[in-house]
TrEMBL record:
Keyword flag Oxidoreductase: yes
Taxonomic superkingdom: Bacteria
Composition bias type Low complexity, residue spans: 37-48
InterPro entries: BluB (IPR012825), Nitroreductase (IPR029479), Nitroreductase-like (IPR000415), Nitroreductase/BluB (IPR050627)
Keywords: Flavoprotein, FMN, Oxidoreductase
Region feature Disordered, mapped onto this chain: 1-59
Protein name, UniProt field: Nitroreductase domain-containing protein
Residues in Nitroreductase domain copies: 72-236
Length: 270
């Protein structure tokens, strides 16, 4: 189990010290799917029946693993191997996504699994066009830096998961959304984050692609007009996860220190 004391909250910690092998495979020390708290219905991740308390990791161990997982998660573009994703693993990951909190318990997400090479190629071509559109807005050093950055692994990854938002789910009286329409969209983003962390825990990589126009993706996947495609996620086994985000490695932008974004009592004056 967890051996040495670690700095709780050190998100750069190598999770391999915390029970995940550096090749991404889970070891006995990592939380198994049935270590998660029961959600109480079939929406919960598969196989998450409660275990006798004696077999469960201590809260401090769970916390250490969780913080390490948050640090290990990366957006992946260039490290996909294209190997298959085990069906049971995919179900666990989707179950984790479906266990996310949602405004009014509306669960406004859907997950479209896209494996067809023709569909993925068509999307990749569209993304390439949008990449060019963005590139034309750049000049000088930014243009040179961006030209070296890969923004998708659509064909290299094993499959794509397109996550959508249906504002009609649970409507008209979505509890908690009457004043903030975007709360539905926030819920979908939480499902995506659950998916991302679960995939990372399973040793897989995820890459979010947003270089697309919603009408194009709707037409490609038969998504109704009222439904918003929120993310095209590339998913699959990876050679490794980088320790530093790609954009930082390529000099596009650096992560902010925590102190820069935490404020006390009031938002800072502009
Ligand atoms: C809403 C959203 C959209 C994103 N779109 C893209 C994208 O189109 N292409 C890409 O390569 N990365 C995309 N990313 C990944 C970010 O670039 C990445 O999360 C960020 O650089 C930090 O790196 P990390 O996720 O590895 O920590 C997106 C991330 C989010 C949250």
């Amino acid at each position: 189990m967890v051996s040495a004391p670690r700095h709780r909250g050190d998100l750069t910690a190598d999770i391999s010290e915390d029970g995940l092998r550096s090749d991404g495979a889970r070891t006995d020390a990592a939380p198994a799917e049935n270590d998660t708290a029961p959600a109480g219905n079939s929406a919960a991740p598969a196989g998450n029946d409660p275990e006798p308390a004696g077999n469960s990791p201590e809260p401090a161990e769970i916390a250490d693993l969780f913080y390490a997982l948050c640090g290990r998660r990366r957006d992946v573009r260039g490290q996909f191997t294209g190997e298959p994703v085990d069906d049971a693993v995919l179900q666990r990951i989707l179950g984790a996504a479906h266990a996310a909190p949602s405004v009014g318990l509306s669960q406004p997400w859907d997950f479209v699994l896209v494996r067809d090479p023709g569909t993925r190629e068509a999307f990749r071509e569209h993304v390439a066009t949008e990449r060019d559109t963005f590139a034309r807005e750049l000049s000088g050093e930014d243009a040179a830096t961006f030209s070296k950055i890969k923004v998708e692994g659509i064909l290299e990854s094993t499959l794509s998961v397109v996550v959508t938002y249906d504002p009609d789910r649970g409507s008209p009286a979505v509890l908690g959304r009457h004043a903030i329409a975007d709360a539905g969209l926030y819920s979908v983003c939480l499902a995506i984050q659950n998916l991302w962390l679960a995939a990372t825990a399973e040793g897989l990589g995820v890459g979010w692609v947003s270089f697309y126009r919603e009408p194009v993706l709707r037409a490609l996947l038969n998504i109704p007009d009222r439904v918003r495609p929120v993310a095209w996620l590339c998913l699959g086994p990876v050679t490794h996860l980088e320790r530093t985000p790609d954009l930082e490695r390529h000099g596009w932008r650096s992560r902010l220190p925590l102190e820069a974004v935490v404020h006390t009592e009031r938002y800072p004056d502009s």
